[in-house]
User: Fold this.
Amino acid sequence: MPPKASHSNPLQNSPFDEINKTINNAIPIEVPANKKKPKAFNLESAAMLQQKDLPDRVWAIHGLLPSGLTILSAAPKLGKSWLAMSIAWNIAKGESFLEHFATHPGRVIYLDFEHSELTVRERLELLKPDQVFPENLYFVREEDMPSMAHDGMERLIETLDTYPDVRLVIVDTLHYFKTPNTGHQSWYDQDYQALKPLSKLAKERGIAILAVHHNNKNEQAVDPMNRMSGSTGLTGGTDTLWMLDRKRNSADAQLTITGRDVEDQTLNLKFQEGMFSLVDESEQRTLNQQENDWITLYQKTSQPITIQTWTKFQNLKEDTARQQLSRGHRKGLLLKEGRNAYTPAPHLLSHCHKVFETLSESDFQDVTDGYIELSQIEQMSPLPSYIEEGLTYA
Assistant:
């Protein structure tokens, strides 16, 4: 009897069999039916940016505290809250900071996590004895202020919506308000992300937010900003940095300021009975030629400096004059008095208070004609009549 014919699959146990198994067991890939092509970036040329009509920078303290997020850091119990409270008073009242730097007056909200009502009142009374407290300086008590991890940011935003004239928000201290580190990210990423909501809010509203913070124990750091507690995510995530240095039991202090929109500077201060005062500013800083020229032109004309007058006075192209005046305004050296019109800031004009003791009438004519730098003039008492009649003082 002949053998039965085999009906086995001719591809069984062949390479094709393995291929079939692989295909049958494959997981289908879902392809989005309406996947959009990525959009290209919107490009803006530098030439377009130059011609763009942008809003002016807003200062809480001209030349020192711009809109955006600022961290004020110092070692514990060295006066940073005293300084913050003084700033709050000055802006609420529209008074100059350190009796020298012009402020932009407005409502101030002070988120106070550290001090009792009694402590706040005693400090304000010591700062400004026999004065009525500002109506538009508001304190939020610790028990009423949750951290950002809860609904602190939402409540702050709602408050700013209710009071749109707020000029400054002070957070004292940042440690209590910011979202705590969880360990799920690097220290840098956590610190940077913790500041992001505050920085974004300040930019969107055009206000200044001043966050009070503590230093670490690295007092030997060459860069004072490395003394700030936390990672470099804090210094990288803020717009402006204020570092207050003072040796314990000493009245001498230094305030170092740096940032994206401020000129790097160090102010020498004295701290006595809760108050900071500025050590003779005329000895700290010498005006440069351009600053002297602004003062000279302003004194000669008794009018705000315009692009046209600055162009003629300096023999410049109009675009160059516009850029120089705009740069001076961004640095807080010039105050805006209308569209494209500026006046020197008070801390520049303070240099006009001084005259040479040996200044003759002919020398004074040179001063008014711009031949003698006003920053070199020393105090003279009594003033000759030709100076009193001819020189305008800040």
Residues 353-394 have pLDDT under 50 and may be disordered. The chain is about 35% helix and 20% strand.
